[in-house]
Amino acid sequence: MFDVLAFLLEEFNDPDHCPARDDLGRQLAAAGFENEEISDALDWLDGLNELNEGAYLGANDGSGMRVFHDYEISRLPSDVRGLIVFLEHNGALSPAQREMLIDRLLVMPDDEITLPTAKLAALMVLWAQRAELPVLVGEDLLSALHGEPTMQ
Q: What are the boundaries of the signal sequence (predicted)?
């Protein structure tokens, strides 16, 4: 599923240029992805598209600190929770986008919730929201697509 999502990010800079689900499924199959992988990724993406930022709009109005619920702590590894806090603290995610990211992570199986998949999920949330990334934060998130950057 994550290879399909990474492919979508690389192929479609703008979600508005992404084809309809059936056409996209055929395009992904032609690119060599398996049907189950395509279906899982498109279902995940449909769930993301169904999340209207308006449903989380109240999160943007608050000024308090976000505390993770016991269920979230049990499902989201500490490095993933740290990433979420880091992204919000550095202006890459609004509180509403943070909640969207948490929602999308919690629908994943436990063994798939890792730091690289959380970075990819964050990119997908921002992509769907057509959000701009701070440069340094964006480079860190893009490492989920291209591997860790190397010093030269």
A: none
